[in-house]
Predict the 3D structure of the following.
Amino acid sequence: MSEFIKHTIESAPKQSKAFLENSKKEMGAIPVLYAVMAESPEILQAYKQLHQQFTSTSFNNEELTVVWQTINVEHNCQYCVPAHTAIANMMGVASEISEALRSRKTLPNEKLQALHEFTLSVVRQRGFVTEDQLSTFYAAGYGQKQVLEVILGVSQKVISNYVNHIAKTEVDPLFEDYAWTK
């Protein structure tokens, strides 16, 4: 199998260049995931839009992290788990939440645990959640809007997790301190 191209601003297709330039300005470097995705401007744009939409949901930073990391760990994404650990730190999420998610331990509060379990159900059952699972999620204080928002989060993470699996994306130096294996 051939290695996936990791584009620079210079080598990227025209429609990907502005995204890579902005990423470099904002982060000081182009994440390897974006360098790989740049081959397809459409997937890069879709990922960016899904990310923007998901971070605009009703979820707070802890809840965003729970959804992202639950999916990343379940999908065994050795790129996204470290990346989202660093992102959670930047977002001010308590390290005990990140560590619980990374090691598949119980979360520090029941509402976050319910979100974690519901997200796992959506992923593992490919959306075929039971009435009992929905009832438990609702009893924790979530509603139909959050059910749909979890699905949005799954959509975003499927793109990045699957790209990373297929491209065997190596972890960026920025995230190496948070390296993870299942």
User: Anything to note?
Assistant: Residues 97 and 112 are 9 Å apart (CA to CA).
